[in-house]
Design brief:
Rossmann fold, elongated, single chain, about 45% helix, two-stranded antiparallel ribbon, Sig_transdc_resp-reg_receiver, about 180 residues, alpha/beta, transcription, Arc Repressor Mutant, subunit A, activator, 2 domains, Photosynthetic apparatus regulatory protein RegA
Amino acid sequence: MSEAEAPELGDDRSLLLVDDDDSFLKRLARAMEKRGFDVETADSVAAGRAIATARPPAYAVVDLRLDDGNGLDVVEAIRERRPDSRVVVLTGYGAIATAVAAVKIGATDYLSKPADANDVTAALLASGDALPPPPENPMSADRVRWEHIQRVYEQCDRNVSETARRLNMHRRTLQRILAKRSPR
């Protein structure tokens, strides 16, 4: 997105970034500062809620799964203090159920990782009715399948038999999938 076609930032350029991946958080913070945002970061639900309560931001980017809980708790805290805030939820585990939950709570948009600063900026500044453009590098179908299997595997406490049962998959097939590297 070039500067000529970039939507205008309002007078309040405050942006809260909440993610427990420290390197991603620092990279995104630097990129968003270059785009004119006044960035504040948090690496946990507790820190995000504290900032949202003390200084509710005009914009926010919140990771869904954090070490100490669910990022939707931060979204709720922002919405309570500042209903006009534009909030984008990021996650490495894209699923329709979590996207619906995020939007119901008040998120403006929902992006799957890896999302770059251009995707995040477009989502934050998109007008209410306009759909953001499709991503330049969407996840492949194989990658989406792999991510889903990994998420269910983690939710089953890394129990192969239980994961295979829930996915209606043969146990040996699941073991082969888990032994492979992730697709691109």
